Structures are given as C-alpha cells and as structure tokens.
Amino acid sequence: MKDLFSAQSELYQQARPTYPQSLIDSLIKQLQGFDCAWDCGAGSGQLTRLIVPYFQQVIATDLSQNQLDQAPALSNVNYLQQAAEQCTFPDHHFDLITVAQAIHWFDFEKFYAQVKRTLKPEGVIAVIGYGLLALDDALLNDRIQQLYHQTLNGFWDAERRYIDGHYQTIPFPFEEIPMSQFQIELRWTGQQLWDYLNTWSAIKHYQDQMRVSALADLQDILLIQQPMQVTFPVLLRVGRQSI
Asked: Which positions fall inside the Methyltransferase type domain (predicted)?
C-alpha cells in the first residue's frame, strides 16, 4: 500500500469532497447488523464521520498517522495506524467494511484475504470512490480536462487507471449487490477548486520532476469568487460475504 498523502494531510482534509447522504442511506439498507464497522484507508475521516451514527463502534485505519491526526475525534471511533493488508482484528468481527478512494493503492489479494477473515457471515464490503470532476463552466472544464489528460499524462501513478475505469476493472471476489448510481454535487469557489487540484498526486509528481507547477497556467482560477457547480461521479462496488 502506498502512502502519498501524509505531507498534505491538512490540505487533503480540507479540500477533498464529501460523499452524499443518499449513498450512505442506500448502503446502510444492505446491512443486517450494526455492531462494528471498519473504515479502511480512512485518511482524515471523510467517510468515517458519515457512517459513525449507525454503529456502536467504528474502527478507522490508515497507513498515514498524519492523515489520521486530521480526523475528527468521535466517541465511538478508534483510529489505528495499520496497513490494510496486515490488520490485527478478530475473525468475523465486522458488519461493514468500507474503503473510500483508497483501494487502488492496496495489494488486492492480501487485503481481500483480510476482508474475508474479518467480515461477519453476510457482512458487506463497500468499495467507494469518485472519478474526475466536471464543471458547469465549459471553458474551465476543458482546461481541467487538458490538465488531467495532457499536462499530467505520465505523472499519474499506474494505479490511477482503476479510478479512470470507475473501479469496474478491480478484482472483487464477493457476491455483488446491485446499487444505484450516485454523484457528488458541490458549489465551489475558485479557491476551493485550486485547493482540491493541489491534492492530486500527479501535481506533486510533476512539481518534483519538472521543478515547476503544473498549475502555473491556471492561477486565474483563484480570481473566481462566484461559486460554480462541480460534479464528481461516485465509484461504487458493494458485495456480501458469501456463507
């Protein structure tokens, strides 16, 4: 499992989008128990805080302690620094295991072995993420598309292909549950968009290798004060532990 975000943990916590409540509601309906959930690759708790109200206990893990330090302190959440592929939890312990915007960094085979060991019979695993944003401003959207597909071509980690494939190409050895499609809809200022773009791993790779910012030609974004419509497609695979 890679750790690319420790150095940007505070910005990541502030700038990354939040999942819609409708997604959480739909996921909760699939569950048969609500004792304990594991949010794996929790980062700074973007998903953790959304599932907390439904469980007696939530365990949130991440490889990055810096990320976990940015997560909210919640009475029924235990934050642990652990690799996804080497967890220390008891067998058949969790009603729900979630992975949000992280599974593409995991060793699939080793992680799924832990999922099958720690998930209760008929427990549910939910692999969640979001793809490339779209803006209602057509000209600005074209510039972001060019940044993503052209300027940063060759600077994305190879694992990014799983997000580009909307998680449909990852292995998923579970009894899959059909789910509705969801999207994240936000109103962002130019500053919020700028901050989000600066959390892209490819932006950091570009800066490290080229010694200049890939966002140099986009600094006029910071002048946009009127909130603009921003939409992300939600990536979702949900499955049940077969008995």
From this structure: 39-126
Number of domains within the chain: 1
Q: In degrees rounded to 5, what are phi and psi of residue 20? A: -75, 145
Alpha helix segments (H runs only) across 73-214: 108-118, 138-146, 160-164, 190-197, 201-210
Domain annotation covers residue 198: no
pTM (two decimals): 0.91
Give the span between the Cα atoms of 238 and 64, in whole angstroms: 25
What is the rounded distance in angstroms from the CA atom of residue 236 to the CA atom of residue 127? Answer: 6
Paired with 229 in beta bridges are: 187
Q: What is the pLDDT of residues 121-154, one digit of tens each?
A: 999 999 999 999 999 999 999 999 999 999 999 9
Cβ–Cβ < 8 Å for 11, 75? no
Q: Kindly state whether residue 95 falls inside one of the protein's structural domains.
A: yes
Task: Provide the residue range defining the domain that includes 10.
Answer: 6-136+159-187+232-240
Cα–Cα distance for residue pair 152/104, rounded to 1 Å: 19
